[in-house]
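Write out this protein's structure.
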Amino acid sequence: MSDSSAFAPAPMTPLPGAALDSLRGVVASDLGGRRVSLLSDAPLWERAFSLCMAARSVLIVTGFFIRSASAPETDGPPGAVILGRALALLGKRVCLATDRSNLSALDACSGSVGGPSALCLDGPDPAALKGFDLLVFLERPGRAADGRYYNMKGEDIGSVVVPLDDLALAAAGSGVPVLGIGDGGNEAGMGTLYEPLSRLLPHYAPFLSRVPSTVCLPVDVSNWGGYALAALLSVPFGRWAGLNEGEEERMLAALRDRGAVDGVSGLGGCSVDGFALPDLNRVSSRLRSWYAGYEERGGPRPPAEPS
């Protein structure tokens, strides 16, 4: 990526709603049945894309430790890596961050595909935000209303969580926008959708994150949110900047070798949130097809003249 710092993206016209809706349909169609992604819409994707484009320096915080397996989760690092790599290709300074329990897995995941470097944070020190003008949480635990952290079973997992979600408060205090990406509602940044999520999932409302964000993207699998944003960033980049064929398997193999597990099954292997590798590859293939189709159509077109 030696030439990335010299790249200047072309001026952008607003992406058409139809294109954003078709992209949303790939990664936020309630494929996993959690219902959270039902709140995803084109305006959210437009705002998330705008935040990414406006930023010059981005800190991406990820890592969800599975208490029952005493291991990092396979969801989070791959999405953070691919999003971070795409942002770097657009000439932005990017750093990935997590806590000590998740660092080895994140570092291996990023190294397997030439992604950004990973930083270890032992706590939510506001100094970590110095020099960054966008904070992204991607599959990172967020505090519930009672100040505790919960998994999708409603179990208290606070004993294995470093409260990096508190960086959201530091960001708000210093005027740094926050982008949150999640699939369960218990992630940092998803608090912005607390009210509609609590109506959608009344049984899970006590466990939902109350940590807010400037924009949050509810998706079927958090990794897919990062992949889809990388697909969107490919438009101003002028060529594909997202997940390449074979890279999902390489990242998951690297994670498996560092002991990471599927957050749903609790087992090691090349799966994410219960989705096996063939299912994951179908999603990444559809994202590449989305970009290819967008380019073939020449991007945004004016509305047809009335007949």
